[in-house]
Amino acid sequence: MNYDEFILSLKEVQPPDVSNYLEALWYDKKDNWGKAHAIAQDIHDPYGSWIHGYLHRVEGDEWNARYWYSKANQKMPEDPLEEEWESLVRHFLNKEDR
To answer: Using CA atoms in the order 26, 68, 79, 25, what is the torsion angle rounded to 10 degrees?
Structure first.
């Protein structure tokens, strides 16, 4: 799946068959933060922590976001949320292609 196909999938009711990382980001873009957060909470690796940090940034909880970014060995970005979302999606799409 490429980025454009992922974006098109947002018109659907159910997410495409993608990794749990991308599924969390899909639900976030569909304005279902709770579902996105529940998925991210169940990913127990640095990538899950990275998404978890992003989601808390979306929520506006910067302290919690910093905590999760640090668990992912990432610096909390200053980029607009939309840019970070796209960057994360592209990162995880690229990871799936390998």
So the answer is: 0
| C-alpha separations of 88 from 34, 70, 84, 85 in Å | 18, 16, 6, 5
Q: Check if the beta carbon of residue 18 is closer than 8 Å to that of residue 89.
A: no
Amino acid in the structure at residue 21: Y
**DSSP notation for 45-62:** SHHHHHHHHHHHHHHT-H
d(CA 50, CA 65): 9
CA triple 91-97-98, angle to 5 deg: 100
CB 25 within 8 A of CB 32: no
pLDDT tens digits, residue range 24-75?
999 999 999 999 999 999 999 999 999 999 999 999 999 999 999 999 999 9
CA atoms within 13 A on the CB side of 39: 21
Q: How far apart are CA 85 and CA 30, in angstroms?
A: 12
